[in-house]
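The step that takes the researchers longest sounds almost clerical: writing a folded protein down as plain text. The outcome of that step, for a single protein, is printed below.
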Amino acid sequence: MFVLGFGCDDKSNEYKVVRIVYRVMDDKCKVDIRPQVEVYELSLDAWRSIRISASSRFSQFELSVFDMSNEVFKEMKLPDSLTGLSVLDLSIFASGKLLSLIQYNRHARSQWIQYGSCSIWVMKDYGKVESWTKQFTIDLQGGIGKALGLGTNAEMLLVASSGELVSYGIENQKISHLGIKGIANSFSFGGLF
């Protein structure tokens, strides 16, 4: 199993991809808690492994933040009210220069993973846990599958359950069809629109 991340090292102006690889243990049910971390540098067109310190933890109650320049992991706490939620119910993105988080609220009447709404959290002062602020909640019922990110004009980029990319006006609660279709889980969002 693996997780991918992408970013820019501001010091060297180098683009990097970070891949965290988890090995499945022999019984096929447990995952090695010390993953292998690899970095791809665009200018070198090569992958390389990096060592992570024994103190590096990958906790479900914290965000693991990768420092692109120093190539080390740092931990950042989630808002207290989100502690204990499944990672399946959380998604992270950047909104301008602010770190933002989507908290999905499961539909209570469903045995499947269906979301009734999602709440958007923003970290107003980077690195300070107490600055996490819940901005608003969006009703996802009525054909919306998942939220991708927050735009500059009080709009959210969402994926309809049909796989269509749509824009949602936070203030007027109107959906604008963007004419882009795909597989709902294939969309991701890395910046402003």
